[in-house]
Write a structure and sequence with these properties.
By secondary structure, the chain is an all-alpha fold. It contains one helix and no strands. The radius of gyration is 31 Å and the shape is rod-shaped.
Length: 76
């Protein structure tokens, strides 16, 4: 292999190495963003469970009020 071909191959390999390093950095960045998104979703799920619990409590209170007022002809 001539020096010219070897230099060309070396430059191509350096370019590939640089591209792979950039991909690794981007992948690491995407991993961090994914973790943040997962944390955010966990927070939203917790909020939804809290809202569901609040709605269930309100439904029980409304049912008790309807029972006291004799308005139990409608089913929930």
């Amino acid at each position: 292999m001539t020096d010219e071909r070897a230099d060309l191959m070396l430059e191509i390999l350096k370019g590939i190495q640089s591209d792979v390093a950039a991909i690794k950095r981007e992948q690491a960045s995407q991993g961090i963003r994914l973790l943040a998104l997962e944390d955010h979703i966990r927070g939203l799920v917790g909020t939804i469970y809290g809202i569901q619990s609040d709605i269930a409590d309100l439904k029980m209170r409304v049912d008790r009020i309807e029972k006291r007022l004799g308005l139990m002809d409608t089913e929930h």
